[in-house]
Automatic annotation (TrEMBL):
Domain CENP-V/GFA: 4-132
GO molecular function annotations of the record: carbon-sulfur lyase activity; metal ion binding
Acetylation among keywords: no
Family (UniProt): Belongs to the Gfa family.
Keywords, ordered alphabetically: Lyase, Metal-binding, Zinc
Name assigned to this protein: GFA family protein
InterPro entries referenced in this protein's UniProt entry, alphabetically: CENP-V/GFA, Mss4-like_sf
Native species: Marimonas arenosa
Cross-referenced PROSITE patterns: CENP_V_GFA (PS51891)
Length: 161
């Protein structure tokens, strides 16, 4: 299968994915609102080893503590999110990929839920489950996180972070 390239808006930064992530969700936490400059983030989770950062890349990392110790990688040029790495669950190293960076393929992943909905900037009129607060949000993600990682059992290749 061909690698999937997920570039930032300006194209200076990108990651490579060996397969499309399966768990897509919307996060309304205040950090996502700030980092994305939008009312919520639209991201897909996958196992870290599904993701390769090019050897030469413009992505800058900086930890934002509140959301599950997510190490967010932003493009050094355009400042847009490229990938986030999360080690919240022991033994389940996750990568978060902005769905917009996946282009048409991203649109084919069905979103599953809204989390941190309590800090939403606006109500969302859809049928997806909506979880408020850190505990409920994190709990709701655990099973899908585990499932998305179980799909990535190939041996690691040049894993970042
Ligand atoms: Zn960029
Ligand atoms: Zn968030």
């Amino acid at each position: 299968m061909n690698q999937i390239i997920a570039p930032c808006t300006c194209g200076k930064s990108h990651i490579e994915l060996r397969h499309l992530p399966s768990f897509r969700f919307f996060c309304h936490c205040t950090i996502c609102q700030r980092v994305y400059g939008k009312p919520y983030s639209d991201v897909a989770a996958t196992h870290m080893r599904n993701v390769t950062l090019p050897a030469q890349h413009a992505t800058r990392f900086g930890k934002y503590k509140r959301f599950m110790a997510l190490d967010r990688g932003l493009c050094g040029e355009c400042g847009e999110p490229v990938v986030g790495f999360m080690r919240y669950l022991p033994g389940v190293p996750l990568a978060m990929v902005p769905v917009a960076n996946l282009g048409e393929q991203g649109a084919s992943i069905m979103p599953r839920m809204h989390i941190y909905y309590g800090t939403r900037q606006r109500d969302i009129d859809d049928d997806l489950p909506k979880y408020e607060g850190a505990l409920r949000s994190i709990t709701a993600c655990i099973a899908p996180f585990l499932a998305s990682c179980a799909k990535s059992e190939d041996p690691p290749k040049n894993v970042a972070a």
